[in-house]
Amino acid sequence: MRAYDLIKHKRDGGALTSEQVRALVAGYVDGSVADYQMAAFAMAVFFRGMSGDEVVGLTQAMLHSGIVVDLADVPGVKVDKHSTGGVGDKISLPLAPAVAACGVPVPMVSGRGLGHTGGTLDKLESIPGFKVDLPLTDYRRLVRDLGCCLIGQTKEIAPADKKLYALRDVTATVDCIPLIASSIMSKKLAEGIDALVLDVKVGSGAFMKKRDDAATLARTMVELGAGMGKQVVARLTSMEQPLGALVGNALEVLESIEVLSGGGPKDVVELTVELGAEMLVLGKVARDVADGRARISKSLQDGSAKERFGRIIEAQGGDRRVLDDVRRLPTAPRTLPVPAPRAGYVTAVDTEAVGIASMLLGGGRQRASDAVDPRVGLAVHRRIGDRVEAGEPLVTLHVADAGVDAAAARARDAFVIGDGPVPAPALFLERIAGGTA
Ligand code: URA
Hints:
It is a single chain. By secondary structure, this protein is of the alpha/beta class. The protein has helices at 3-11, 18-30, 35-48, 52-63, 92-101, 120-125, 136-146, 159-169, 177-190, 211-227, 249-260, 266-282, 289-301, 304-315, 351-363, 404-414, and strands spanning 79-83, 106-110, 148-152, 195-202, 231-238, 246-247, 334-339, 344-349, 377-380, 387-388, 393-399, 415-418, 428-433. The chain has a 4-stranded mixed sheet, with helices on both faces. The chain has a 4-stranded antiparallel sheet with strand order 6-9-11-7, with helices on both faces. The protein has a 3-stranded antiparallel sheet with strand order 10-8-12. Helix 2 (18-30) packs parallel to helix 4 (52-63) and helix 5 (92-101) crosses helix 12 (266-282). The two termini are 40 Å apart. Bound molecules: uracil. Uracil binds at residues 84-85, 111, 165, 174, 179-180, 183-184.
């Protein structure tokens, strides 16, 4: 079977068998299929799509390109959460310790920010000393002893996805439902979970701009999970504006600490509570979602989630004192307000542009090899539906030396200001679950 023939078959609209997909992925990992051939294949999938069986075949091939972590010796139902990526989406930081504090183990393998989206690993690394590249033996031990560990994709976890994702990122083949679904699910199924909650983002700051596409992506992932015997619940949530008020790595840690201290912006709290409630139900700790909400809210109010995060930070080499003294987080040398060009009401936000503004300041990366500056980002002062007067700040940039003018222009142009008020978009759009979940 030549890679050339498989690419051509896909290009011409044919379907590949599981064996053919497996052979292609195996060849890509061992180097006998070249980057340019895999890029051509990804582009053929982008235009032709994949059948359900092909997506299963691709997911299985990527999952088994590495090891599937065995967490059988950790008591309880292990549940993770994954977001398809957005702007200001720091939910994993308060969520994982809150769920662990409520008694459900959370094995969490996260990603880095790429393009306009932020990544949990970059945020965690802005906590001085925090290590995300722990060996799997430490990962297993911490999930067992602390109920949570927050690491990056190691070389053992779905290496084919790691290689393919980097290739897709530079060949304009990221925003493709079968490729996203198989990428996310191969990693999640490898990390040792029993069940999974997916936060599928929809809107101007998400990969999926349209609700129908997001629902198709969610359904594809729920079915992939069910096919592997895992319960998966997907929530479609709005990314029509940044989540919370702060965007940027250390800034998002700061906002997460507010949530873990019983405060924080309403949308960040609501999303943490809702996704956490779903996880507690899947983890068989809560009777139903209402009971789950009450338990997560209590853990945020009574300090138990914050205490758990402190233990996780310490175990992963970080300085837990940031939790009580946020001045220990890296801070940008200066701030710069971006004024509204006119008076009116915010009617829409180009959330992707807000994410790009943060990236231009150094908070994100254009290429996977770029370093990020943990100090920079934006504070967002106006949300959809809010009134603003001419000259009042829409956002405040937290800047170092890079990209200030370009970021200011992007941030200003991201806000559409109209004459009349509009309703704020709903945060929760749809729930998609398989079988018994
Ligand atoms: N996140 C992933 O892990 N993979 C994708 O393809 C897109 C988002």
